[in-house]
Amino acid sequence: MTKRTYSTEAPTIRRLQGVILYPHDVQEETVTEEDGTERTQYSYTTLRVSDCGQQIKDAAAFALENYASLRAGMYADLPDQLDMQYHGTWDAHIEAVKAAFPKPGGIMVGDDEFPRFADFADEPGALDGSKLRLDDILNKEILILGHRIRQTKYPGKGSEKCLTLQFRIAGDPEMHVAFTGSSVLVDQMEKYGEKEPFVATIKRVDRYYTLS
Asked: What is the dihedral of CA 168, 174, 177, 178, to 10 degrees?
């Protein structure tokens, strides 16, 4: 699970070396010292989002615009996920993450509510993360958080579809993406993609990649 940070100052959203650090679940606590004096302390978890130039002046607006990336950062590490699945608490964990960062609703103008483009458009949001090759993650357990399938720009060279995977590797909090034209992986994600997020391993069998 994500470790909590303790500070005497209230945390704020900030930029640091290519990522945006978003303080989540901020709790104000009163600590009593040995001499009886009291002081205020803050505890929180830090979620990391790739810095793509987003505005950070309004933390609430940032959370709405980047809810998918913040959700990804809240999911438990792979060993904890496996433990949750064994004990039957994984589904509750997913619902808690979604509740913490809900998908944005409509915009209120006076007494009228208008939908956001993202609520009805078919265009998916961007899948951010540092790029890795499939060969870099072979036989490693990964948490698949998102995917996108599009028509390839180079038809006639194997699969006509291109798959983008967004994932995290066990023990690594950083978000990653990988691209492939593997017809087997494309077929598997078309069939099972709605089960995201889930843990899987990419293996190579002869000349083909497959999930297991």
From this structure: -70
